[in-house]
Amino acid sequence: QVQLVESGGGLVQAGGSLRLSCAASGRTFSAYAMGWFRQAPGKEREFVAAISRSGGNTNYADSVKGRFAISRDNAKNAVYLQMNSLKPEDTAVYYCAADFRQGPTIGRYEYDYWGRGTQVTVSV
Asked: Which residues of the chain have pLDDT under 50?
């Protein structure tokens, strides 16, 4: 079992920045690839970014490339999502997820564990 807790969400103006954190507990964190997903009201949960077990490989949705950066600290059992140049369309609940494979993994159905999410709201 892996428990994931997201934090760092909030309200920010367009063009601003936020840094999301996801703290993991339970099984060995470095055994999991990690991902961030988001879900806006009335929409399906969508892939945002993913990182491999070691942190050496990453993958991003086209909509966030160049603006968001995923990173992890295996010593701290944490994964982060730095979000810059935020847009109103980035408004969503952001979830972190763990996949017991090398990664980085894009498909949401391939993830084994999920956090409860943190709300990000970007105002115009």
From this structure: none
